[in-house]
Amino acid sequence: MTCNCRFCGNQLKYTFIDLGISPIANDYLSPPHLHQAEKFYPLHTYICEKCLLVQLEEFESPNHIFGDGDYAYFSSYSDSWLKHAKAYTELIVKKFDFNSHIEVIEIASNDGYLLQYFQDKGISVLGIEPAANTAQVAIEKGIPTITEFFGTEVAQELAAQKKQADLLIGNNVLAHVPELNDFITGLKILLKPNGILTMEFPHLLQLIDQNQFDTIYHEHFSYFSFLCVENIFAAHNLTLFDVEELPTHGGSLRIYGKHNNAELPNISERVSQLKAKEIAAGLDRLETYITFGEKVKQTKLKLINFLVTAKQQNKSIVAYGAPAKGNTLLNYCGINKDFIDYTVDRNPYKQGLFLPGTHIPIFHPEKIRETKPDYVLILPWNIKEEIMEQMKFISEWGGQFIVPIPEVKVYPSPSKLLSYAHNGGE
C-alpha cells in the first residue's frame, strides 16, 4: 500500500519496524464478543526519509479509538502518574510565576487527573477530551470539559468565544493525532499572543535505545524525536524554547512552545544540547531507523524462550496490567492463554473484560493473592517500581516479577534484580 507522510506529504518507502498484524490495542472484549470475529490491522511503522517522522498508517479513525464512549484508559488509576501531574503543576506555576488570573486549557484532559491540581490553586481551567466516558468523570469532579476532538475548527470556535490559553497543555496526545498539521494549527489559534504551551510525548530516542517497540500501537500515529518535532512546530510559526527529558513512559520529552513573534521566554541551552545528543545518536540519519527491526526480533525470541522454559517447568504465569503496550507485546510475540493464565488491573472499567487478540481475562489485583502464581509478567513496565511495591506480597510464596522490556529480567523482590538467560536460569 502506498502512503504519504502525514506532515510533509512525502511518499513513505522505508520501514522502521513491522510488528505484523494486531487488533486495536484498547479494543477490550466483553464475554459476548469472545466468539465473534476480531479485526486485525497491519502494525507497520514507516520512517519518512525527508522529515524523519516515524509513523503508522491510519486504519481506524480516532473516533473509533477514542470517541465511542467506552475508552478504557483513565489516568487517575496510576499513583505515579498523579504524582507526576501534581509535580508538573507546582513546577509550571513557579517557573512562569502564574497566578489565579491565568487561563489553563488542556487537550486530551482525560478524567481531570491534571487540571484538578490547577483548580485547587484557584486557576481557571478547561478540558478538551474526545472520550465521552472519561470526560464525564472529569465533569463529575467539577472540572469544565468539552467532549470534542481537538483541531483547527474547535480552536476557532473557542477563540471566537474569547477562550484562549495562557497555558496550553497536551500530555501524551501529540502521538495520537492523525491530522498533525490541522492539530498544530489549532494549537497556534488557541494560544494567547504571549501564551506558553507544553506537550509531553514518548521520546523516540528512548524507544530505540531501550527497545521499547511495544509502545507502537494503532492509537499512536506518530513517534517523535526533538529534531523532527522542532521542525514540525517551526512550520506552523511556533518556536520550541525549552525541553526537558522525563522518566515517564520509559523516557519522554516535555517541550515548551511559544509564538514565533513572542519575545520571551528566551531559548534555553537545553534545546541545542538535546539536538546535539540526538545527532550523536544518529537520529538525523535514515540508517539509524531502518536497522531497528533486528533488535526487536531478538527480544521476541528471548521472551518466548523464557516463557516456554517456565511452562515446561510447570510454573504458573500471570500478568499485571492491561495497557495498550501490553497488547502490542502479547500479540506480536504470540503470547496467549497457553502462557498467561490471566492479567489484573486496578481500573474497574477493564475488570471482567478480555485482552484483544489474546483473549486473556482481566481480574481485580486480589486475584493474584488468591492463586499465588510463580511469575507475574509486568506489562506496564514503565511503572514497574510502583507495581512491585503494590504486589510485594508475592514474596510470601516465592513469587517473582518478569519485566520484558528492554530485555527479559526477573525481579525476585523490589530490591534485587536477576537477569535470566535463554534457558531461564540465573
Would you write up a description of this structure?
The chain is an alpha/beta fold and about 425 residues long. The chain is built from 14 helices and 18 strands. The strands form three sheets. It has a seven-stranded mixed beta sheet. Strands 14-13-12-15-16-17-18 form a seven-stranded mixed beta sheet. A four-stranded antiparallel beta sheet has the order 1-2-3-9. A hairpin with a 6-residue loop joins strand 2 (about 40-45) and strand 3 (about 55). Helix 5 runs parallel beside helix 6 (about 180-190). The longest helix has 21 residues, at about 290-310. The termini are far apart. The relative contact order is 0.12.
Q: How is this structure best summarized?
A:
The chain has 426 residues and is an alpha/beta fold.
Q: Which structural traits does this protein have?
A:
single chain; 2 domains; alpha/beta; seven-stranded mixed β-sheet; 426 residues; 18 strands; Rossmann fold; 14 helices; 31% helix
